[in-house]
Amino acid sequence: MVPSVDDEDDYMSMAIPEPSSTFAQPETSVQRRARKTREAEARAHQPSKAELARQAESVRDAALHTSLPTTSKGYQMMARLGFKPGSALGKEGNQHARTEPLGVVVKEGRAGVGMDGEKKRKFREEVGEGGAGDEGNKKRETQGEFRERQGREREEKRIEGMCWGAMKVLEGLEGEDTLIHKGASKDGTTVETTTTTKPTKRVNVLWRGLVRDRQMKETERRMRYDLHQSLSRNAAYDDPDEDKQDRQAWGDEEEEVEEEDPELEEFSALEPAERLRRMTEYLREEWRYCFWCKFQYPDQEMEGCPGLTEDEHG
Asked: Is the pTM of this model over 0.70?
């Protein structure tokens, strides 16, 4: 039988495989140096917190998706109690029994357990999806409204600070009955305490709040000091040099109840801008003093003062 043309081997198109080497090529010095460098870098590499977290998460996920091995002591204990793989624990015939353990939800962050629920509730109230009454219909504050509110609060705080400055100026001009006491504090520094011999209600209401605030701070300071001293005081000890405030602090005498001051409360309830306006006008009319120029003029003309307001002074 004569072979056909198709059966003849086409030696021109044959792929001749390369002879396989049974011996590995020897590693050159350059390759060995590069390999050792990579190994040293791998050993010296310190994983970051993110890498450690990813590694811990992968290990945890792998452990959660792995069945309890039969060599485990927990498995052996359950097997002695009648557990079989694929069945549920507990009473037989319970269709609602769980055949798989509860899933693990890893809590991230340091907030409390109920913090997420509280955040969701507040979010629902802001968007108007939950809550009753006005809270449920509360609208989210826009960025422009937030900036406007922040600006108003900063301006009110600035004006409030200027009100305290104007009260101190008034005290310096009208406080002829004011006494300054110098004393030493615990750290050795000199501390000045200002008191007035005039009854509080006879002080001008424009700067009466400064006196009342100073009296409250002084009372709190004395109470803390006397409380500290009372820890080492003998109850039977009678000091003839004690003044009225000392006896009140020790509890030997009833403390006088501070009287209410409706006039001061009414003035303090005004807006800071209105209080500041009244004080600056009083300074100009009674003392020829411009709060914005920080200068007391010699006559009522007040020549050289730009005006009555802060804007007029630039």
From this structure: no
